[in-house]
Specification:
Blueprint lengths: L1 H11 L10 H12 L17 H24 L3 H10 L2 H4 L11 H7 L3 H9 L11 H28 L4 H29 L8 E8 L2 E7 L11 E7 L9 E5 L6 E4 L8 E9 L2 E2 L3 E8 L17 H16 L16 H8 L16 E10 L2 E5 L6 E5 L7 H10 L6 H11 L5 H20 L6 E2 L4 E2 L4 E9 L9 E5 H9 L9 H18 L7 E6 L2 E3 L4 E6 L7 E6 L6 H12 L9 H5 L2 H16 L11 E2 L5 E3 L3 E7 L6 E2 L13 E5 H8 L2
Parallel strand pairs: 9-14, 16-22, 17-23
Antiparallel strand pairs: 1-2, 2-5, 3-4, 3-6, 6-7, 6-8, 9-10, 9-11, 10-15, 12-14, 13-14, 16-19, 17-18, 18-24, 20-22, 21-22
InterPro entries: ANKFN1 (IPR039269), Ankyrin_rpt-contain_sf (IPR036770), FN3_dom (IPR003961), FN3_sf (IPR036116), Ig-like_fold (IPR013783)
GO cellular component, one term: spindle
Protein name: ANKF1 protein
Length: 690
């Protein structure tokens, strides 16, 4: 018998014994799973276990129980329990794709009982169909055998119950009879589900887009019909011929968490036709052709053969820095650091020891001057000195106002914390010019070196975009760094931020808060800004809005508070690539000064990019509080697409040329709603690359 063969195969491969055979057994397993079985077995006190062998035995016991409970939950069509188990156990722990003694997998039971929600949950977790069902005939024969054997077992037990006198054995036989009657009904329902199923319909929609100059992206949706069995995989086919003869390639997709596929290794400039078909236990359904019917791999740069803007720039800058270092490496001032180790924090402190007075330490109070503070935080804790003060060092006690150019220079220095000693020595050489600017910047480098030496770490993090100024004439430059590991520092310790704020309130003056008071009041906001400024956009094509405003000493750019390292934006689509065909259309639209003729309206409305841009522009104008009718004179920047890596790209929407940058005192009737801020342009440029 086929069932017996399946059992023999399972025994030969040391497969799992069958799970509980009745609903009551399943309920007992559920209760156990809710209690002692739904814990990590490694959480037990290892001292109470005899040895590794016993722990492994205990582990296997828990995994067996969870696997058996999963089978029972699927058989009882208990969706909530299935989802709970998939959440608490990995597929490996559940043995999700190991057949039971009947040769069935959980997914087999779900699809043959036509339970689509459970089947989809299993598929999302990585479940497969049994490999033993190589054909429709083998599946049908196996189900018939299961039904026949279950019916035979029911008849045997029924005869024993009727003929035997009431006793303990008879009571046990009655329990077995009920269990086999329940299993007999299950197998009949599975057999009926298989017999009434039909092949799936074609996918309801297949969208084709150009992913790059050598690839296409296919996105598809499951069939609309609910009468056929659950779809368990899809097949993507592509060809240069609309008849798909010859076929150039195909791919089977059985991971159904995301219904899309990227066809790689195609020839740029060649048209490819694509179609997708669905599969269930009855076989492959008819294919669905893509929309549009074909696509040509390309990229907007092919329009004029333009090279990427940033190609080779990083290498050129590294080469330039190397040349500068070579020129300075023979200076007398560099002799002490020629053989300095790079990676040991204690060597940093040792090499800096001669730079400071033996009594150099963090400051407790501020006097009139310029200071540097470093905020290191981890969750809700912050690093403070042993006197419960935020680490602060003095830059210049005679500096009563901070020039914006000096501050912006310091923000650029923050990109090369490891080179501070070398930079300080270079500035020392140049001090003969007696430039006030050089002297101030030398003091900044000296303060940074002092902070690094006292903390025992070189990377001080990111400079906050705005110094803190108080009425006493103090200016505080703030750096922020999030610590994600249990890192230790010298001369400092961790304390909760709330505790530090409470203790500071008791000694500060609410009428005239110092710069340190202002820092503690706003430290959570600064930490939130720092975290948001490092967030990355999800892959896709975006529409950005460029708006500048100028002041006496700087130009500022409008950005969203939630992503201050990116321009105000909305997402156009998930595919970041602009094809050559789309770029040609954008160039054509940019060159049209007169209204588009009526006969061209139909062509525009058929262009997917045009429709996507219409939606994105309306959304963006609403976001920045500009009436749509006022945007009629706005224009798309048509010189290039801004690429940020391979997965994010931007089209820019610009106001009229006279309104791109608002001058001081110029009236701007449309101000963005809350949730925006303006950053100095140089700060934004630094943050954009983080």
């Amino acid at each position: 018998k086929m069932t017996q063969q399946m059992r023999d195969l399972q025994l030969a491969q040391a497969r799992k014994p069958p799970g509980p055979s009745s609903p009551n057994a399943a309920k007992r397993l559920y209760r156990n799973l809710s209690g002692k079985f739904r814990v990590n077995y490694t959480s037990f006190d290892e001292g109470s276990l005899v040895g590794r062998g016993e722990k492994e035995k205990l582990r296997k016991s828990y995994l067996f129980q969870s696997n058996a409970a999963l089978f029972e939950a699927v058989e009882l069509q208990d969706l909530d329990r299935v989802q709970e188990m998939l959440k608490h156990y990995s597929p490996e722990e559940l043995d999700l794709n190991t057949p039971n003694s009947e040769g069935l997998l959980p997914l087999d039971i779900a699809i043959m009982t036509n339970n689509a929600p459970i089947a989809r949950a299993l598929l999302q977790a990585g479940a497969k169909e049994s490999p033993h069902f190589v054909s429709l005939e083998s599946r049908s024969l196996h189900l018939s055998t299961l039904v026949r054997e279950a019916e035979q077992r029911v008849n045997e037990l029924m005869a024993q119950v009727v003929n035997e006198a009431p006793n303990a054995d008879c009571s046990e036989k009655e329990k077995q009879l009920k269990a086999w009657e329940w299993r007999f009904r299950l197998y009949k329902r599975m057999k009926a589900g298989f017999e009434h199923a039909r092949v799936p319909d074609a996918p309801s929609s297949v969208h084709l887009s150009v992913a790059s100059s050598t690839s296409l992206q296919v996105t598809f949706w499951e069939p609309l019909s609910v009468n056929s069995a659950v779809v368990t995989k899809y097949k993507v086919e592509w060809s240069c011929s609309p008849t798909f003869s010859p076929l150039l390639g195909e791919a089977v997709i059985d991971k159904l968490k995301d219904l899309h596929f990227t066809i790689q290794g195609l020839v740029s400039g060649t048209a490819y036709h694509v179609r997708v078909s669905a599969y269930n236990m009855k076989g492959w359904g008819p294919p669905q052709a893509s929309t549009p019917p074909f696509a040509i791999p390309s990229n907007w740069r092919e329009y004029d053969g333009r090279a990427p803007r940033r190609r080779g720039q990083a290498e050129a800058l590294d080469h330039l820095l190397g040349q500068v270092k070579t020129v300075h490496q023979h200076c007398i001032c560099h002799e002490p650091c020629k053989n300095q180790p790079q990676s040991r924090k204690h060597s940093v402190s040792k090499s800096l020891k001669h730079l400071f007075h033996p009594g150099s330490k963090f400051l407790k109070t501020l006097k009139r001057g310029l200071y540097l503070t470093a905020i290191f935080y981890k969750d809700d804790n912050i690093l403070v000195t042993h006197e419960d003060q935020i680490p602060v060092v003095e830059i210049d006690d005679t500096y009563s106002c901070l020039l914006m150019q000096d501050f912006l220079w310091l923000t650029k220095v923050s990109c090369m914390w490891d080179e501070i000693l070398w930079l300080r020595q270079c500035v020392t050489v140049s001090q003969s010019s007696c430039s006030c600017i050089l002297q101030t910047r030398f003091k900044m480098l000296l303060a940074i070196s002092q902070m690094q030496g006292l903390l025992g770490i070189q990377d001080l993090g990111q400079v906050f975009f705005e110094p803190i100024k108080d009425k006493q004439g103090n200016i505080l430059i703030v750096t922020l760094k999030e610590v994600k590991t249990n890192q230790t520092f010298e001369s400092v310790r961790w304390v909760p931020i709330c505790k530090l704020q409470t203790s500071r309130k008791s000694v500060s003056s609410p009428e005239e808060p110092t710069a340190l008071d202002m820092l503690l009041i706003s430290v959570q906001d600064k930490m939130a800004y720092h975290q948001r400024s490092s967030h990355a956009l999800s892959p896709g094509l975006y529409l950005g809005y460029l708006k500048l405003c100028s002041a006496v000493d700087q130009i500022r750019v409008l950005v969203p508070e939630q992503l201050p390292n990116i321009l105000c934006h909305v997402k156009i689509r998930s595919n970041p690539n602009i094809s050559r065909e789309e770029w040609e259309w954008l160039q054509k639209m940019a060159s049209v000064e007169e209204p588009v003729p009526t006969e061209a309206e139909t062509d525009r409305s058929q262009n997917p990019l045009f429709q996507e841009l219409q939606v994105a522009i309306k959304e963006l104008m609403t976001l920045v509080n500009i009436p749509l009718q006022e945007a009629k004179d706005f224009r798309l920047y048509s010189q290039e697409v801004l690429d940020f890596g391979d997965q994010v790209s931007f089209l820019l929407l610009l106001p009229p040329s006279d309104d791109v940058c608002t001058a001081p005192g110029q009236n701007n009737p449309y101000t963005p709603r809350s949730g925006f801020l303006t950053l100095p342009l140089q700060i934004f440029e630094l943050g954009e690359g983080r």
